[in-house]
Amino acid sequence: MIEALPKALVALGHEVAVLLPRYRNTKAGAPVAQGLTIPMGDTLRFPAILNGGTLRGVRYFFVEDPEYFDRDQLYGVSGKDYPDNAERFAELSRAAIEFTKHVWTPDVIHCHDWQSALVPVLLRTQYEKDPTVQGLAVSSRFITWAITARFHAKP
Length: 155
Hints:
This protein has 5 helices and 10 strands. Helix 4 links the parallel strand 9 and strand 10. By secondary structure, the chain is of the alpha/beta class. It has a single domain, classed as Glycogen Phosphorylase B (Rossmann fold, 3-Layer(aba) Sandwich), CATH 3.40.50.2000. The strands form 4 sheets. It has a 4-stranded mixed sheet with strand order 1-6-5-2, sandwiched between helices. A two-stranded antiparallel ribbon has the order 3-4.
């Protein structure tokens, strides 16, 4: 569960922030960053970061991009993934890095599951020379059976 690690870290005295997509009907506060510039292929996207408040000592923030995240379901409908899931979560990964540059600078980024899997790759490639995030530590937890089931190519 996504909240177990943040709560445990707060209990140990750490300052913790969690960044999530703002899915449909998720309540959020005022923007803390308007229109981050996120390159996506040949285009630019401009999601905002919204304040999600603090719960049990954990600060929450949301990536606001209705075109990508204000949908009927989280990942797809009728048993089929949304065809743009790769783009949606590539944007989330880039937004997470920009969030660390402009809103909240962590000592460690923890990537939880496949939706944030591009963060470590982007940090070590496209953001490699960016002094703001250079050398930022990353930990991750990816459920391999879920990745295999979701993305396994059929013969």
